[in-house]
Amino acid sequence: MKWKDGDSQGMVNTKNKYFTASELKDALKKFKADQDDVSAAGQQKLKNVKDQYRSYDELKDILQQMHVDVETDTEIMQKLLLAYTEEGSSDDMRLHVLTELEYHVHQIDNAQNLIELGGFQLVILALNDSNSDIRAEAARVLGAAVQSNPKVQIEALESGAVPTLIRLVASDSSIAVRKKALYALSSLVRHFPLAQLRFLQQGGLSCLAQLFGDPNATTLRIKAVTLLHDLMVEQINVENLSPDNPTNMEKKKQYEKVPLLQMMVEAGWCQLIPTLLDSPDHDTREKVLRAMITLFTPCHNDYKSTETQQHLSVLRGEYQALVVEEKQEDSGDDYFSLLLSLVDEISTKML
Q: What is the pLDDT along the chain (351 residues), one digit of tens a residue?
């Protein structure tokens, strides 16, 4: 049974407990037709509906006249920062403030406004707090604020965030802090060649290499390899940019100053990365295999080691069997075929 109330309409099934597939399709078609109506009449109808509502500024003025406060994100952050810096503020309160800030700074404008409010420096200082929960949450706020936000990335770099985060990843007593610090460090250096250069100069590669000797840092090792692989791909993509565009040429100049590949080889990453091939996780293996392929030219001699060849042989046998099952299921998922192709690509290059 169909119903209509003014401009609203719908369908109620009074005969059966469920709608049939045909009935649902018909209802969906009608709904889409109404939504996609680009005719003059349809557009006028849409305008009439919009005219019934007021803008945010108009609503704010009306609510203020009614003595109802409507706070902007900036005003909310300002109050949070006051609560954070209030004399006698407890660790629980400061932790709550950081958690709330992390929610807000995902928006680019909010993250930039945090700088203007003086809150960004509070976050940087909180990375050195005696409370590990506050250190971890501060790193999480920093990671959210700098993501794809050049202005905030520059502020973080100039505030000395890189060496602080490297130290936290390498030696903090809390594994939670180390994870959040690596997240923040990854967010900071991505698509920011100057930060990548500072990362290299401040011993970032050595710090990440130390994770391979830490039995409690399995997840961190995987994240480290993922980060380095992404940075290598980032450099390769820039190298392949068209030279016709002046912006591209400037990018190339910036990345040419970042000797990532050379320093990775010198720091022993050709030997370190293949050790993760024995991971039971397929996603980890994929990341490792891709990193090995990207590093193949300078690292191929290291890949000839007996241990690495044994790992590749075991993976090939495992994925050959999984590919057979994959094809029998005919699910359309070729994931194991992809992993087998990565193993074969490395093996073929070794010939």
A: 544 445 545 444 445 544 455 554 555 455 445 544 544 555 566 566 556 666 666 766 766 666 656 689 999 999 999 999 999 999 999 999 999 999 999 999 999 999 999 999 999 999 999 999 999 999 999 999 999 999 999 999 999 999 999 999 999 999 999 999 999 999 999 999 999 999 999 999 999 999 999 999 999 999 999 999 999 999 999 999 998 899 999 999 999 999 999 999 999 999 999 999 999 999 999 999 999 999 999 999 999 999 999 999 999 999 999 999 998 888 778 999 999 999 999 999 988
**What is this structure's pTM?**
0.79
Phi-psi region of 70 (alpha: psi -120 to 50; beta: other; left: phi over 0): beta
Tell me if residue 2 falls in helix, strand or coil: strand
Q: What are the residues facing 11 on neighbouring strands?
A: 2
Q: What backbone torsions phi and psi does residue 11 show, to the nearest 5 degrees?
A: -140, 135
